[in-house]
Amino acid sequence: MPVTRPVDLLVPNPVSFIVQKVLIHKHRDEKKKAQDVLYIHDTLELFGASLDKLRTVWEDQVRPKMPARTATRAMATTTKLFENVTDVIRDAARIPQDRRLQPENIRAATQYGLEEIFGHPS
């Protein structure tokens, strides 16, 4: 049905979306983990030209609303999740039928984007 009048649509910001995917990662089954990795990669690819803005969203809007331990866990999980090519990342590369993704490219690009948003691990 076509929309005939203006509507308000709530869309989560990309940083909140990524953080949510990271925080639930360990609770997901293997198929969903791969799908979430692809979603994180694709979100970063889509918004990659604005990594500095995404970092500002993280620092000014998302992180301050989270308990410190939760923010630390999110950052640690992103580091661990993308430090090496894993079966989950390999499975994520196989999901899209319309493009040929390489697992190492997913890992490296996603790791870079996440480090730019959340900061480099110490």
Brief description of this entry?
This protein is mainly α and 122 residues long. It is built from 6 helices and no strands. It has one domain.
Question: Could you name the key traits of this structure?
Answer:
122 residues, mainly alpha, 0% strand
Radius of gyration over C-alpha positions, nearest whole angstrom = 15 Å
Cα(first) to Cα(last) distance is 51 Å
How many DSSP E strands? 0
Number of separate domains? 1
Measured by DSSP, the beta-strand proportion falls in under 5%
Q: In one word, what is the shape? A: globular
Computed structural class:
mainly alpha
Helix content range: 55-70%
Mean pLDDT: 92
Major sheet size, sense and barrel closure: none
Helix segment count?
6
Low-confidence stretches: none
- Sketch the topology as an H/E string, one letter per element: HHHHHH
Characterization of this structure:
It is built from 6 helices and no strands. The protein is mostly helical. The chain has one domain. Helix 5 crosses helix 6. The termini are far apart.
Reconstruct the topology from this structure:
Layout: H1 14-24, H2 30-47, H3 51-62, H4 68-81, H5 87-94, H6 103-118
